[in-house]
Amino acid sequence: MQAIESKRARPLNTNHAIANAVKDLDVDVVSAYPITPQTTVVEKISEFVAKGELEAEFIHVESEHSALSAAISSSVTGARTFTATASQGLALMHEILHIASGLRTPLVMSVAMRSLSAPISIWNDQGDLFNARDAGWIILFAHTAQEAYDSVIQAYKFVEDERVLLPAIIAYDGYLMSHTIEPVVTEGRERVIKFAPKRHYPYRLDPQKPVTIGPIAPPEYYYELKYQQVKAINGSLPIIEEVDKDFEKEFGRGYGIMECYMCEGADSLIMTNASYAASLKAFLPEFREQGLKVGLLRLRLYRPFPLKKFVEYTSDIKNLLVVDRAISYGAPYQGPLANEVAGAKVKEGLGFNIISVVAGIGQRRMDREDFYALARMAHEGGRHEETVFYGVRE
Amino acid sequence: MSSEKKVKRIKSLFDLPRDEIFISGHGLCAGCTAGTIMRTLTKVAGKDTIIVNATGCVEVATTRYPYSNWLVPWFHSAFENTGASASGIVAAIRAMKKKGIIPEDKKVNVIAVGGDGGTVDIGLQSLSGMLERGDPVMYVLYDNEAYMNTGIQRSGSTPYGAWTTTTPAGKVWRGEWRPKKDIASIAAAHGIPYVATANPAYPSDMANKFAKGLEALEEGPSFIQVLMACTTGWRFDPSLGITISRLATETGVFPLYEIDHGEFRVTFPVAKRKHVREYLKLQGRFAHLTDEEIEHIQKLVDAQVEKINKRAGKTVIGPLG
Predict the structure, then answer these.
(1) Which CATH class is domain A10-251?
(2) Among the partner residues A28, A61, A207, nearest to B48 by beta-carbon distance
(3) Whether the predicted interface score ipTM is above 0.85
(4) pTM for the predicted model, two decimal places
(5) Most buried of A19, A104, A259, B192, CB within 10 angstroms?
(6) How high does pLDDT run on average in chain B?
(7) For residue A177, what are the contacts with CB-CB under 8 A and spacing of at least 6?
(8) Are A216 and B92 an interchain contact pair (Cβ–Cβ within 8 Å)?
């Protein structure tokens, strides 16, 4: 976070930071169903609407499946539309996630990441998000409440861009971020709308110009339509980068699409996201003093994957320890991100040693000494054939 | 409802506009009555209309990319979310009117169209949400009494005794053994302003119910259950669709009524009912039934008619003639 000292920050948790972004963006329609730990996002937005601070239609749907369904149709009717969810809610939306991207819907959804049942756990991990990664959405991880606020604003700017027209998820850690208070600068509607003016869906449902949206595509056409999505999400990367740069110019805060923190002089990197990245930023200076030549590779933009940046940051390192808070059962590495990194390593001919670590499942506590243990593991390197399930009792 | 009729009523089919909004060239089966229903519906609704379609026969047969049979905006996203999708469109229009993005006085009819699978079964939750919220959408169910699009599997709307590919007739099973779900009463239980049953064999009655359903949107949602005789799934000659549809009402199998602000009224009284055999014998889906089984179905129809008469407070559907 840069340049916040010039403005007055307010104490907000990430859920409320998101709700404030929705208010400042003058969102027209909110269609959402409450679920822990996202709940206070929709509560806060309801409060804004009730008090007249946000003039929006709030659709009180009966499920997340309907929440996203109504959000899609609202968006293609031309309204700036928002939804939010977590965990089982995101899983219940799964069918509709693919439809949102397939119909090229410019909507934004926040996800307060939480573990998936069974057994039921209301606590944090990222099993929900990684289960949704292949649904064709742009995905950004935020590591502070401020970044979450800023990312929602950035997201509307790029999803409504005619060159993109894809839905985006802003993901952050349930509880660890959704319910913890941080200083957040909010910019107010005037400045936010000036930065991200509404650009209504160009092919909207309008009786003046009838369109058919969502037809059946026979084998002669389906493939090309899906390929257009491939091109659209790959093509969105420079636009996302450009929006972030413009945002920095306007508000003094920029994040890039991938961040390398304390990478100078580091032989090894820990790749992680969201609250773990924030924790590591706090601990790394101390770990460095203790002789661990370890830096942080923070994943911000996840889809599309910022491969060029990744190569730039990892081409000269010895060890890359990838922290996953999700499990890919029965896969070569059981950390889904570690698997992708292994693929990227081969594709780009990179020389680092991969250490796959699963941690924090169901919000298993991770303290300073646990992050120290991970940093030590990264620093020491050595071959780890199998994924390390850190902190599990066998 | 106010006595002022904002959507024109018709006396005969000649009163319907000549303009076609649901156009020819679709892929519905020869003799399919869904096309008849959609054509009438769009003629009544006019151009300022948005159609939201559930996955099903009408959807796949009328929008095979890159073609479309719809001259009004048409939207489809999935099977079970038509109620929610219609709500999203209504909310977007309302928000954009408030914010001056579209003119405040612009009237747009939002009409949801779904088959019995997408409405009575998998889409029931989403439909209930839409009705309970009071969102101004006219939901039109074309009820062909099974999952026809995927090959005639039973649905909650399949009538007693009907053969389907998942309730085949054999020594143990004798076709569907559960009664048809009463979806119109379920919709009415939400306390919405207008609910009706309709039948393309009575086109003026059907068209006027669409008109009333659209008028009701000033107050809230409306729900119209239209019987849709299916040549493929019901196993009858494609020329017999309307004949069979008419028999459904003449036998009391599918009574035509409306519930206007809670007021129940049979719109097509039947003085003397025909025996249910007349309806069943034209359809291959009932070909396996014995005389005894047909008599049992007659008793079920009698009981249903009694219930209707009780709701009407008088005998509007008469005895067997």
Answers:
(1) alpha beta
(2) A207
(3) yes
(4) 0.97
(5) A19
(6) 96
(7) A13, A14, A112, A142, A144, A145, A148, A274, A275
(8) no
